[in-house]
Amino acid sequence: MRKTYLNEAKINSIYFGGGTPSILRKGEIKSLINALYNNFIIDANAEITLECNPDDINTNKLLGLKETGINRLSIGIQSFNDEDLKFMNRSHNSKEALNCIKIAKDSGFDNITIDLIYGLPNQSNKNWEENLAQMLTLDIQHFSAYSLTVEPKTKLKHLIDKKLITPLNDEITVEHFNTLVEVASKNNFVHYEISNFGKEGFFSEHNTAYWENKHYLGVGPSAHSFNGNSRQWNISSNKQYIAKINEGISYFELEQLSNTQKYNEYIFTALRTIWGVKLDYINNQFGQEALENFKKQVVKWENEEKIKQYEGAYILTKNGKLFADSIASDLFIV
Fold first, then answer.
1. What pLDDT digit, counting tens, does each position of 39-90 carry?
2. Are β-strands 252-256 and 307-310 bridged in parallel, bridged antiparallel, or unpaired?
3. Are residues 278 and 250 in the same domain?
4. Distance of alpha carbon 96 from its chain centroid, rounded?
5. 5 domain residue, yes or no
6. d(C-alpha 322, C-alpha 308), whole Å
7. E strands, the chain, where?
8. Which residue among 32, 123, 180, 255 is least crowded, i.e. fewest CB within 10 A of its CB?
9. What percent of the chain is predicted at pLDDT more than 90?
10. Cβ neighbours of residue 308 under 8 Å, at least 6 residues apart?
């Protein structure tokens, strides 16, 4: 049904993510990959990633995944500290976290990324440094590190509101971030996006496509798609998703993007990367007026040394990265 969405463009990234796709059996994953190869033009060197949790992984599982064509693993480690893992209600412990990476490498996976979380209540900078040091011993190619965010209607938000948990203050979270950037730089990880660090040649093809405004097709409940002019998102209910497809009824919502929305999305995504906001791109895609507007708005952030110009692009400074969202929103056209 969606095979024409990408206009026969060659696909260089396939990503099994959201939820826990590693609970699927080898045959189920293989059938999905086969369906993609039967309906799309897949690059011979396509990056095919599967998200998984440490407690889902064993040698047989990994060897099976290797046979399906999966060539990159994204492992939800979150922390190598047992107290952190208990706080986050993770079902694995630090020993399992370390072991799963070992068996992934032993099973032939040479492109592995993990997720880490900082800014946890009671997490000292020393604990965070130990987490990063442990990660460095594993000789992996990529990692993502996210500051803990408190979402509404969650158990964490409830506990904070009841004053049963005290969130970490901003100063220590900033210290965690600065430590992260320094450790990554010293160990040959390129900080190519606010939350992502990769060795040369191992930046995430998939996530980079989002930040570079490339087109993508999302398949499955809750999945999003983007073709340059519109954005659409599938309904989240498994049951309704299946029923509506079987009945031939529309199962997604669609939004046509205005030029202003396209401009703002470009600013928001590009500013998060080492490639930054390119002046030529703004001029070519949005015109001289948009370019002059950007140049005028960006001056104050240059003066505050949160943005700098580099080879025809504007990129965030180390300090600017701490304010990425607020800087981007200030540069929006409203």
1. 999 999 999 999 999 988 899 999 999 999 999 999 999 999 999 999 888 8
2. unpaired
3. no
4. 23
5. no
6. 14
7. 11-16, 42-52, 72-78, 112-118, 142-147, 190-193, 196-198, 224-226, 230-234, 252-256, 277-278, 307-310, 313-316
8. 255
9. 87
10. 302, 314, 315, 317
Same domain for 183 and 127:
yes
User: Domain range for residue 281?
Assistant: 273-331
Q: What is the per-residue pLDDT for 4? A: 93
Q: Model's pTM, two decimal places? A: 0.93
Give 157-226 as a 3 state SS string.
HHHHHCCCCCCCCHHHHHHHHHHHHHHHHHCCCEEEECCEEECCCCCCHHHHHHHCCCCECCCCCCCEEE
Which of 14-28, 129-143, 246-260 is predicted least confidently? 14-28
- Domain count for the chain: 3
DSSP-derived letter for residue 110 is -
Pick from 114, 104, 107: nearest CA to 134 = 114
181, pLDDT greater than 90: yes
Mean pLDDT, rounded, for 27-36:
96
